Amino acid sequence: RSGGGAMLLADPSLLNRIVCAVRAAVPAAVPVSAKMRLGISDTSRAIDCAQALADGGVAYCAADVDGGAR
Fold first, then answer.
1. Is 31 within 8 Å of 64 (Cβ atoms)?
2. Interval 36-44 mean pLDDT
């Protein structure tokens, strides 16, 4: 629909750009954190997404293992 939320997991480079923008917008002393799902129906990009978040400046990242199915 909007390309946000869990749909961002399909585009690690967009995740990275978002995190870089947030990191640049807040003072360096303020940690940036993220919560990430493993994926909607495909978890193969989870590592790429986590790396994109870390490369963008996320200090803390939590992966959400959601047992629910769509």
1. no
2. 73
